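ok so for the tutorial part 2 we go from a plain amino acid sequence to predicted structure tokens. step 1 is just haveing the sequence, like this:
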Amino acid sequence: MEESSGIDGQFIDDVFTSAEKALTDDEKQKLEEQNKRLIPEFKARQLEAQAQKHWDLFYKRNETRFFKDRRWTTREFQELIHDYPTLPSGEGNETRKLLEVGCGVGNFVFPLMEELESLGQTNNYFYACDFSPRAVEFVRSNPKYNEDRIKAFQCDITTNTIHDNIPAESIDIISMIFVLSAISPCKFDIVIKNLHTILKPGGIVLFRDYGRYDMAQLRFKSGRKISDNFYMRQDGTRSYYFAEEELSKLFKENGFEIIINSYVHRRTLNIKEGIDVPRIFLQGKFRKL
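step 2 — the prediction. this is what the tokens look like for a chain of 289 residues:
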């Protein structure tokens, strides 16, 4: 998980680059150690079968306390603001439709709704879906939830169930923030195909997730690795770490053009606590052809 409420630090300016992190000898050794004991195939299948259960348990334990509100999204993704020129619709009185895939308890969608309202941009409709039924219930029980403006529903984005709630070619913007990494790599293609189907021509996907050789990847011990760059956390949830080239290829092969796709190197400092945490994310914007 990328942003728990447990570290109160200062962000140093992000560095955007297309270059993969160069590993030190110590970091190479850590990755070699991970290969000494992989998760058995039967256990990997079990994790896949119980993926929804593990995320539901995550939200049962943490409720709405774990993630901070994502108030940085319009800074990083200006397309979320109505008058941004690349939007396929949203002009005049036309309702602009946005979908958040993997909404969790609403840390992205509710702050975004507030910000757009403060800018006088009221002609938006929000869809929010999550794999966890418990997470969706937290969204629906939020005092800001109003089905005239937002619809939250449970959905497995690796299946066709998304189409039960959203018609084809009806969405202007899809956000996918730290979501694809939680899905088995063998299902990435179907996820991106589903996004392509529900987007309008010219619609965009806004993406941020874990980058290859992020600190969290290097910290995994032997016995946690499922397959290349794919790991099991202690709570049974899983995490994949993306390379820039493979993500670009994934979207290109499924009908998107690349607007931007870069590694984001970030440092979080807390001098009082002696914390200096380097992180690597992958951030992209992809337009439906």
